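Priority: low. Protein: Cytochrome P450 716B1. Input follows.
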Amino acid sequence: MNTLFAVFLFLIPIFLLLTRRQKSSERLPPGSLGLPLIGQSLGLLRAMRANTAEKWLEQRVRKYGPVSKLSLFGKPTVFIHGQAANKLVFTNDGSTISSQQTESIRRILGERSIFELSPEDHKRVRNALMLFLKPESLKQYVGKMDEEIKKHLEEHWHGKQQVTVLPLMKNLTFNIICSLLFGLEQGTRRDEFVEGFQTMIEGMWSVPINFPFTRYNGSLKASQRVQNMIKELIREKRVQLEQKSASPQHDLITCFLSIRNDDGKEELTELEMVHNIMVVMVAGHDTSSVLITFLLRLLANEPSVYAAVLQEQEEIARSKLSGEFLTWEDLAKMKYTWRVAQETLRMTPPVFGGFRNALKDIEFNGFLIPKGWQIFWVAPMTHMDDSIFPEPSKFDPNRFDKQTSVPPYCFVPFGGGPRICPGMEFARIETLIAMHHIVTQLTWKLCADNHFSRDPMPVPTKGLPIGIMPRTPLSTVRCFTK
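Result:
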């Protein structure tokens, strides 16, 4: 009898554990995790490169409903979308959901990037970033951006009959990054940065299989080279600050080095500086270059929108003396141009979606998101929801005439909530200055179709070749072929 009672007591916790697991399994979202490690990663990547990722996800919604499970980039994942999903992702306090990225992004950008930090460390690093990226600080860099953009157009656009926009915009935005983040002028060193950086970002959305000759492997090696170059720059800037040959506001690195804690020591570790400089590099390079490229594509297809943007920018140009730089006050007048940019971001967001990590079990829409699983959110399915944006396929900048007309957590090209992208204002300034000079100096016509793919950022056909001519009231433009 005693033996039977002991066996009974032993079996009770096992029975309860199995029952709990069964109930948890029943509450998981529908769907399949697919093959180990690979899961549905290759299918999503193929759909993105074919620009059918939204349809790929819509098929999942039709099959499984608005919440489903799958496996992406080596981890079990729950896919969610819509206003409630965005609010869940962007309003958490860091105790339930972390912004931890996929294994490939984490390894390439570093474990001390702002994406990977605990709530306390995230706040500390974000505050350091905002000292440089907040509007009050960026005001002093408007003239420097203006100078870089004028120089770029003079070297790469003027006198040309045809240019390819996307690679030129990437060249421009990286030069601005090198100037404002590192105080690094043109030359061999900047060229080495460009080469390493471009290889690094190619493997950020990839299956984390570190075999030789894979894109992921090449990106990891490039990441290490870039990190070593940034460490060298940090050491040089530290010496310059000690010798008072550089100011704390000279660039992002000197800004980081000048922030001290209560003990008088540097607020950020060197690794935190390196990894978060890389985050700003990626954000500032890709978002702005893609946005400017698709703005030029849009204006070539929408004559009435182009005319309104041109009118706004010409009025500002007429108020400037010859050679005078744009100012913060000039940017504030570019209201319609920025509404056009916002509508471009709605229809073609540079960031298709992103990942979060569940720190504990989460209930969402009647399903369980288990602790340790990824959460995959996407922007286009909210941006193109006709219950939020009527006639979503129609380009209408007036949607953003009043910000209150757009419901919260429905327009998320920069994320939202307390963890909204800290580089949003940087991208806005960069975009407006570039558009001012391109629109007032040149006319253009598309020389390729309107299709694009994602890798993972949007890439227009052939990089968007355009025929260009200096702008005059009676100018015409045609495509030139070799």
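The first strand starts at residue 68 and ends at 72. The chain has a mean pLDDT of 87.
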